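Aim 2, interim progress: modelling of the zinc ion-bound target.
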Amino acid sequence: MSDRPVASLSLDLDNLWAYRRTHGDPDWARMPSFLPTAVPRLLEVFGEHRVRPTVFVVGADAEREDGAKAVAAITAAGCEVANHSHGHEPRLHRYSRARLDEELGRTEEAIVAAGAPRPLGFRGPGYSVSSALLAALVDRGYTYDASTLPTWIGPLARRHHNRGTRAGASESRDELFGGVGRVWAPNTAYRWRVGSHTGLAELPVTTMPLARVPVHGAYLLHLHQASPRLARAYFASALRLCRALGVAPSLLLHPTDVLGGADAPGMEFFPGMAVPTGEKVALLGWVLAELGRHFEVVGTGEHLRRGGVPRRVRDARLAERGW
Ligand SMILES: [Zn+2]
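Predicted structure of the complex, ligand included:
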């Protein structure tokens, strides 16, 4: 057993079609996929650094041949497979209970059919979460949700997520306020109270302690484009703060962390896509090494098992506001 504190890694397996749809590109309906390029590359980097992140898989992909192959390879590599919704619709928090059950159920079936155990963890696309969703997770036997990003730049993060679309203009006030409210959301694990049930854990994606700004993926690559040294200094200070404040970091990765422009045609609008593949792989390797130097790195499900039952409990009715 290692005496280093625990940190976790997860990967949201967002596919090319989902980014293109969010961008408003009608060609998304052909469901273009970069999984055959991204998944082997990611698994190679994970293998080199001996980490097994939890992979949040989209049901619509797991139902297809390349997605099912990806799920099988991820499972064979010893990674936990979790649920990232069926359609990767960032407005999931507006879905009715019936639609949420369909989203969850179809994805569970596809994941199991592809050879992975039934998922116990869920992350909403675009950090979407609602009390109806949490109730559905409880009823379906999930042990944790990982949909929150406790940051004050919620509206900005959403715009970043929906970059290039006109969604920003139609953003409703409640979502905007929800985004700002999330600055008060905890940066470490807690439990949701759903009716009388308090067993569903929440593992937030860690943001920079105190400053509450994201430290992962596209944000880091954005800084890297300005200055590789700045990006590394920024990430190193985030880890230093986590250690100083006793925050067990849970960091998020995306396929775009290892894909160059040529691997993802039609995604030139997305931040960081001009960074060459080799540079991206090197930065990810550095991030994993830095994390592994100070922490024992596990998946999100394992992170929660190691941490024991979180003491803090929050009412699920506050989910829409994040706190
Ligand atoms: Zn996603």
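Residues 164-178 have pLDDT under 50 and may be disordered. The pocket of zinc ion is lined by residues 12, 14, 84, 88, 125 (CB under 6 Å).
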